[in-house]
Amino acid sequence: MKYLRIAKLLTAHVVGWGSDGGFGVRAGLGTLVAEVLVEELKEKSVNEIEVLAVVEEEGDSWMTPIHEYLTNETLPAERKKARAIKRKSQRFAIINGMLYKKSFLGPWLRCVGPSQANYVLREIHEGSCSMHAGTRSVIAKALRIGYYWPTMHKDARALIKACQECQVHKPVPRNPQEKLNPITSPWPFYKWGIDIAGPFPEGPGKVKFLIVAMDYFTKWIEAKPVATITGNQVKKFVWENIVCRFGLPGEIISDNGKQFRDNPFKDWCEKLCIQQHFASVKHPQTNGLVERANRSLGEGIKARLGKDNKNWMEEISHVLWAHRTMVKSSNGDTPFSLTYGTEAVIPAEIGMPTFRTAEVDVAKNDEALKINLELLEEKREQAAIREAKSKRQMEKYYNAKVRNTSFKPGDLVYRNNEASHAEDTGKLGPKWEGPYEVTEALGKGSYRLKDRNGKELPRTWNVCNLKKCYIHKM
Ligand SMILES: [Zn+2]
């Protein structure tokens, strides 16, 4: 089905081929792929062409009047409307029959209608390489890869709010106990945080722990599942996943677990002139960055797996990928772009080509990438400035955060699973269970609840163990 979709979306490029002499100026990757796939299409039945309509837009959308004006100068009869369209169209252009919008900083944005927009959002939020990220990250990613539609924010918020997986697995909010201590790193890949997550359900090869490391500057994340945690395992991990990929680090920050503190790891670090710093387990704030990465790694895996979580190992690479290509709010860039100087191509882009994938020019691509690399240094500097700024804001935010919620009878809520123990707990169990209906508000944050069969629940439940449930409207 995916092949068919690509074929249909790319047929436009095949028309008018040859006019510039075969592999002319525009004969890029897109054209080559299209040619092969279009042949396959001939064999398929009518049925399967209808499947394409899932992503093809049907009927009029917000793009229709702009498209009509730009292709054959037809305007709506009403004068006011016509003038508005005329003005609006200045910021759009038709390239190969496709509508694009000029963006202020980034690439030309491919305009999409409602069902295509839904496909893009779903692919980014819950698709094959995603970790159920929040609204801002999803929108930033969609824009960055090059999609546009007028109601991006609203649509993303609605889709994510109603995502069942996200609601069940969202972490239980906890107010911070201590002031946050920001650390800024002098250069990419100089300072790494390293930590161990688990135990998880035992996977093939008896692996049940995850060694996780994150670069303080680019937020690039590396992880490896292991069966046991020994100094030798840690040594091997740092050698293979950090030194051999990013060069020698200057500092490694970890808790003072004995696999980090004692030999053979200690000696090994000394030999390579890597400074070790230890953050006490009792004061996780110092080591907060890795703790946080660890948590989001666990959350991402959980949301992807649902409740059947025997395959956590196979999901790791997807979650790592999603983490690396998602914009980090602390520095406004993706770890991938800070590492390689350009954005990665993700599956949504192939399913529905953006300007970048549809118009790739093999000869010029290399040159453009070189320019990107030249700009990388500047990009990293800007990211460092943004990061320092965001850390100041984060401190402020942590000190002012107060939680304030109330419910009324008839509201649907989830219960904190740690408090109710209604579902399996443990590291990969759901954080929330339900939904239940509020039957009575008793004041001071306590509530009576009933389940979906109308049965009243024993005890009253405090607001700190409840959260609002949003139901899918499909
Ligand atoms: Zn989700």
From TrEMBL:
One of its GO terms (molecular function) is RNA-directed DNA polymerase activity. Signal peptide: none annotated. InterPro entries: Integrase_cat-core (IPR001584), Integrase_H2C2 (IPR041588), RNaseH-like_sf (IPR012337), RNaseH_sf (IPR036397). It comes from the Eukaryota. Residues 366-393 form a coiled coil. Keywords: Coiled coil, Nucleotidyltransferase, RNA-directed DNA polymerase, Transferase. Residues 184-343 form the Integrase catalytic domain. It holds the Pfam family Integrase_H2C2. This is Reverse transcriptase domain-containing protein. It comes from Tanacetum coccineum. The lineage of its organism: Eukaryota, Viridiplantae, Streptophyta, Embryophyta, Tracheophyta.
